[in-house]
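User: Structure tokens for this complex, please. No commentary.
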Amino acid sequence: MKQLEAIPERRATPPGAQHRVAPRRRAAWRTALTSYSFILPIAVFGVFLLVYPVLYSLALSFRDATVETIVGGDMPFIGFSNYEQSLADPTFWQALENTVIFTFCSILFQFTIGFLLAIFFQNRFPLKNVLVALLLIPWIIPVLTAANTFKGLFNEVGPINQIAHLLGLPTVPWLASPGFALAATIVANIWIGFPFNFILLYSGVCNIPPEVYEAARIDGAGYWRRVGHITLPILKPVTVAVLMLGTIYTVKVFDLVFIMTGGGPANTSHLLSTYAYQIGFSIYNYGEAAAIAIVIIALILTLNLFQLFLRRR
Amino acid sequence: MRPPTFRSPWLYTVVGAIVTVVLLSPLYWVLSGSLMTQRELFSPHFSIWPHQFVFQNWSNALVRLWPHFATSAIVSVCTSALTLLVTAPAAYAMIWLKVRGRGAILSFMLTSQMLPAIVFVIPLFILFSQVSLVNSLPGLILGDMTFTVPFALIMLSAYIREFPYQLVEAAQVDGAGQWRAFFSIVLPVTKTGMITVAIFSFLMPWGDLIFALTFITESGLQPLTLELYKAVGVYGIDWSFLLPGSLLTALPGVIFVVAASRFIVAGFTRGALH
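Assistant:
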């Protein structure tokens, strides 16, 4: 933000301004001032509520920050201890692994479902817009509603086990079994996220001119060949954007897992986000929680750089 | 482009409707379950429809949630209004007034939109405890704004980029200043974008749990999501409250999506892809 603060001065004396006549200089001043008055609110907000928290998180991650040390007023600097402590905790590695599995599986299925829906809705048919709107519902409703829905569906005596029982299949206490608990949250997250993939891919598909397909049809290309050789390549920029945004938003997921499993049973379904929250607000070790938060930031920034690299190519 | 098997377009409608029903079936279970007794809901046998409609679940949930509904509405309306107040002038200035450093601001906002809430929750909790903004709605609103502001700025700049700036230049010839032009020309012309962003900035705090959970402990100030989260208690889950309550919480979003799906589709693709 240093850059931001330096701007008004630079703008106020543009090169050669001193040679101009006074009234013009005053007018330029006023234009510049007006422009900055438009961004003043967001600059203030950004400095206090976005930049400051990120820097403060970074500072906390190197300090012994617990309820006592905060109330006591001095949080001793302890170097990398918080990081060492997290890295030594097997739950951290489990949470990291879960975050990777959760993100990969969610994106894979969300994208596949979204893409299949998009090419289906590429056809023109009656009531199409109504169905498109209805399919957005899982994504637009609060995560809490979706989380409670799937908490019920995967309940030990809930409908999934009721139906399994009906079909003579073994029943599983989904949310109380290690492994299955994470799988259940992934299913729920796929349900929440497929509309986002669908709607972006759908609008991409709608922009493809029909003539492109006509030519291929005349050449005798079948439906799936046309999808593979025309739709997919044209959609490539949209696909990259959808996959990257999806990945970044999935790494952030907190509420869903927090509500459905709370990281349990026995800490097996934690994501990095829920693990950090537990360290921060159940154990009240803010310093270590901040360290995990910084690890998540590092992960997201790496993904972001990877995206830039992909887009440049 | 259609696979050659389908002759009538209505066949697509039928297939599409079946797919939609299957994908939305989890919500159907919540709806029918919200009208069952808890015993029927989790009996060994699957019931697709309540044997006996227990409308009392809904009236109980409404009575219990009503005060929290009001709290959520206040928080969401304020968050939405403040978000627009902060981001609309900024988006306009960054696109059309060629403010220096706009690239830095935009990429910073993009990055902070990607950061997990925990990055903001811990420092703001510590900071807000010191200035007694914990257990206060303004504190919650400021917390919620950390995710609405970056989102709104990015989405609004996509809309404002399409604004015809000649309108402002014409007004300036008539002696209007930038702020006057902003309120009397820019805002009315970009109304659709403003409304879309306002609604999203309403729905995001409406569904927020993490800030409410961290900042609000006083029961009189708890928003809907928190009251519902608490239904998962030490002695098990009160499903006959949780199911209707979850649907009630989803209501604003559903109403919006059904009423204005076109705006969302257009708005969201613009914001996300630019």
